[in-house]
Design a protein that fits this description.
Two copies of one chain form a homodimer.
Chain A: E1 3-11, H1 30-42, E2 49-50, E3 59-69, H2 75-85, E4 90-97, E5 110-119, E6 132-134, H3 140-148, E7 152-155, E8 172-183, E9 186-193, H4 200-212, H5 218-227, E10 242-248
Parallel strand pairs in A: 3-10, 5-6
Antiparallel strand pairs in A: 1-3, 1-4, 2-3, 5-9, 5-10, 7-8, 8-9
Helix pairs in contact in A: 1-2, 3-4, 3-5
Chain lengths: ~250, ~250
């Protein structure tokens, strides 16, 4: 076949049912939009593989994809042609040739997500697609103290399930960074790990915000982790605040 | 009638044809959404007056409105009821009683708009609703030099027409602040004036970005101003970058 190419992809996840194409047609997926644009531009069917299978409503600024394509012009021209073809809520950049054995998911060394929240008694229409509204300011120092307990190699079974859904698969992940930053009424949680379980970031954010509200102490985060009990954490932070910002290889 | 109330309004202008209700039903307006919510909550027809008649696609974080309503509970409860009734792209806050002669437009001493742009060779889907994409970094120092020429009392006929459309109406306005700030790939233009002409901010932004691209020198902005010739400035910055952030009384 043609050349193997990798690229970065950004999308506004609001109007997608997720990154990954689904067997049953339940709505727009980023993968299907990318494949449709590639098929139109390259005049042949192209399969796209992504690094992270983001959920419905989750955004990306640094998703990584790879595909093989017959393309005789420059990769810059391919990028321009794709962006002219893609809907306005998806864009590709940084197209470059890659090894035939490069796999966006299996070759990845780490992924970084950022979760954004804002503190406001009243909802803010300009932030609603990209951030979670917290009605009262949480205790960010306590949230950071709890977040530190997550750093390192742990069994995160309490915070998510293996993506395959197979019980025998490991739920051990290594978290390299986990901290909250603030500016005015905004809060950002940055988490980097070798890989993530299904819904792990949104469950961690929910648990940490509960710490920030005084519902759990930072020590209870460690208890939850050790319990490996997925029933311990109630709820899930909304998808809109989550963004896949980087994948390292 | 009832109590006269003022409030601040924020909206994502993307899916509106503008703030002001239109004689012909051509799409959603912020005013009509506010009046519909007030009618539902107060159980009587309520007319809303706004400070600024923002265009289609223009946003607000600090629009000011006033209305008279029969309401027997607290204004905080009215705000909560309205926000529960309004669509998710509009929200009200800071409701307070005001004098019967308070008029959001005629009583205003100044308005402040912020225009947001970003520099990126590739469009960024997460910014598309709220910022103008500039493919190359403009010369911000030159833009600020040109912007300084606009400060003070001038006839801005070259940059817009009187809102009424009547030729005899003055096109003199007093600009109190006009400057660009930058952070990473973002640019913000903040402009405060006693009042604005129709499309004045977007025409000023377009002219200043042309200065930043080297198409005009900062002196030409002064020539344009003195010419009072609306034909001198080609084009209009896109509505999506513009936001009404504050109205002072």
């Amino acid at each position: 076949m043609g050349l193997k190419i990798r690229a970065k992809v950004a999308y506004d996840g609001t109007d997608f049912v997720g990154f990954q194409r689904q067997a049953a047609q339940r709505g727009r997926t980023v993968q299907a939009e990318l494949e449709a644009a590639l098929e139109r531009v390259c005049q042949s069917r192209v399969a796209v593989v992504g690094a992270g299978r983001t959920d419905a409503g989750v955004h990306a600024t640094g998703q990584v994809i790879a595909f093989e394509a017959d393309w005789r012009h420059s990769l810059e021209a391919l990028g321009r042609a794709l962006n002219a073809t893609l809907p306005e809520d998806v864009a590709v950049r940084d197209l470059e040739p890659c090894d035939a054995d490069f796999h966006p998911r299996f070759s990845a060394k780490s992924r970084t997500y950022v979760y954004t929240a804002y503190v406001s008694a009243v909802r803010q229409p300009l932030l609603r697609r990209f951030a979670w509204q917290l009605e009262q300011r949480p205790d960010v120092a306590a949230m950071n103290e709890a977040a530190r307990r997550l750093i390192g190699s742990h069994d995160f079974a309490a915070f998510g399930s293996a993506p395959s859904g197979r019980a025998e698969e490991t739920t051990v992940r290594e978290v390299l960074r986990a901290d909250w930053q603030t500016a005015d009424d905004r809060l950002w949680f940055t988490i980097e790990a070798n890989a993530f379980l299904f819904r792990m970031v949104r469950r961690i954010v929910m648990a940490l915000v509960r710490v920030g509200r005084g519902e759990y102490g930072p020590d209870e985060i460690e208890d939850m982790l050790e319990s490996r009990d997925a029933q311990r954490i109630k709820g899930l932070a909304p998808a809109c605040g989550l963004c896949l910002v980087d994948v390292k290889y």
